[in-house]
Every structure is written in structure tokens, then in C-alpha cells.
């Protein structure tokens, strides 16, 4: 994969974050999402590549841009031969979440990001628009904790791997009714629970970095975001496992109120998923030879600052991780607008 793409995808998430941040605190989550989608799509279509969206604003959101199967990049245009030789370029699969945490942006809360992951064709699992039970943990616990074990067992294993008492472990869980028993079990073990309303990609990512004081992500969230989290954890060497959830009685959401377990199983079969109970690890979900992950903070988070506007420009903070270079780069960028002015550092 062309190494210059790694630089350009930073600009993709930066532009999406800037566009979405203009809606911060305005109570308009759809506006924040649409702005991020359009900005991300416009910037991707200026990259010298043949890209295909495998995870995007698909059937659930019914968004007009970045739908699953959409082709992006200069070399997917009808007049592509004027600009490049499409046959010489490796086709790239792309998973995107232009505004991960739309409610967080709308309410002006911390933790929203613009994120994407890329790999060569077939390198990312095209996750169905289902839910997924997830377990993320630091690299030291990779291969030791297991999503098939109870939360109690995993906390004991995590405690041993990290050489920390269970009482010193912090576990992120989505604040949903379906997690009431999980939350109770974690607390009974003595660990602390950090409840979040949205944004479990950020939580999974934090597990792989020392100093974030986040030691695990447990519970059920969206499957497409699970693939993006897995891509990041694959790059960082962290532990990630996911298992599709298809029973509405477990998910407990209004969106699935009229669905049935049997109907969802049939739907998965029609999508080519013959083992709906399979446990996927990071290498299954993001198994490409080269995987890149990029994120840019929209609102402030644990790892990155949010977008900051000032007279004459915008400041962003991004993260790009690559299996190719074995690096995790934090990128602090000043975007000057109009006539150059004094750069504000604070």
C-alpha cells in the first residue's frame, strides 16, 4: 500500500472532524453526522487510490453518502484514465465512522471522533449492521482474557497480567439496560465501572495505551464499529474479540422491537455468515497484510483534544496507526484560513 495514503487519511479525518465540530453543542446530531460524512467523502475523492467502502453510513442510517459498496478515490472516476492507471493500483477497503458519537457532539460532551480504517481488498471484515459483544484489553492481556469467560474470570486474569489489584481496574461499559447484570458483576468483583453513553471505539483504543487509566471495554455495541476498533487494536497489539449478537431479547433496543431471533439468523445466513456464534479476534476482523487506522478528535477525549477554532484558523489533534510502519503518531495540526495570522498555541 502506498505510504503516502497514510498521510492523506490524516487529512480525511481532520476535515470530517472540523466539519462536524461546527455543530458541537447545537443539539443537531444529524447535522453533525452529515457534515462529517460530506467532508470525509470529498477529501477521499481527491486521493490517488481505488477505494471501496465496506463499512459506512449504510442501511441503518440510510445516509446518502459513504454507503456500503460506494467507490471513492480519483482512480474510481469514470474519467480515471486521464489521471492514473487504475490497473496498477491495489484496491483498498475502507471502514468509516465520520462522526463516532453523534450524540456527544450534539450535547457538547467529550469523546467524539472522526475515524476510519483501511486495508487492501478483503482485509477488513464487512460486518453486518448488527450488534456485537466486545472485549478489549491491553497488549499484556492479549490471548489471556477471553470473551467466552465471565467478567469475573477476565478481571482476575487482567489483574494478573497487569500486576494490578482488581480494585485498581477501570472497565468501560456502555450505559444500556442490557448491561445491568454485567455492571453489577464488575462492581461486585471490586473493579470500577466507567459508564459511557456513546463512543466505544475510543474506549477500545484507550485500552492499548498506558496511562489512560482504562483497562478494559466490555459489553455490546454496534458491529461495524467493532471492526474499526479491531483494526486499531491489530495495529497496536492490543486484545480485541467480538461476537455477533442477534437476539433482540439480549440487545434490548427499540430499533429491534419488531425483529425476531429467527428472522435475524436468516438475515445473517443470507449475508453469508454460516456460524453466527463465532468469536472473532482482531486478526479475523482486520486481517489484511497492511492495516491503517486514523482518528481525529471532534470533542476532547482521553487521547486527543477536540477541534479548537480561533481567529484565522483551526487546530486539530489526530492519531494514525499502521501495521506497515509499526508506529502510532499523534499529529497536532494548525489549519490556517484566510490571510496568515499569528498562530495561537494555547
Task: Provide the descriptors you would attach to this structure in a database record.
346 residues; D-Maltodextrin-Binding Protein, domain 2; six-stranded mixed sheet; globular
Fold topology:
Elements (H helix, E strand, L loop, with lengths): L2 H19 L7 H16 L5 E6 L15 E2 L18 E10 L1 H6 L5 E8 L10 E7 L13 H12 L7 E5 L5 H10 L2 E5 L3 H8 L8 E7 H14 L2 E7 L2 H4 L9 H10 L8 E3 H4 L5 E7 L10 E3 L2 E10 L4 E10 L10
Helix pairs in contact: 1-2, 6-7
- CATH class descriptor name of the largest domain: Alpha Beta
Secondary-structure content class: alpha+beta
- Distance from N terminus to C terminus (CA atoms, Å) equals 37 Å
In which range does the helix fraction lie? Answer: 25-40%
Domain module tally: 2
The topology string of helices and strands comes to: HHEEEHEEHEHEHEHEHHEHEEEE
**Rg from C-alpha positions?**
20 Å
What is the average of the pLDDT values?
Answer: 92
Bin the strand percentage.
25-35%
Any overview of this molecule?
The protein is an alpha+beta fold. The chain has 2 domains: 3-122 and 290-336, 2-Layer Sandwich (Fructose-1,6-Bisphosphatase, Chain A, domain 1), CATH 3.30.540.10; 131-285, D-Maltodextrin-Binding Protein, domain 2. 30% of the residues lie in helices and 26% in strands. The chain has helices at 3-21, 29-44, 102-107, 151-162, 180-189, 200-207, 223-236, 248-251, 261-270, 282-285; strands at 50-55, 71-72, 91-100, 113-120, 131-137, 170-174, 192-196, 216-222, 239-245, 279-281, 291-297, 308-310, 313-322, 327-336. The model is unreliable at 59-63 (pLDDT under 50).
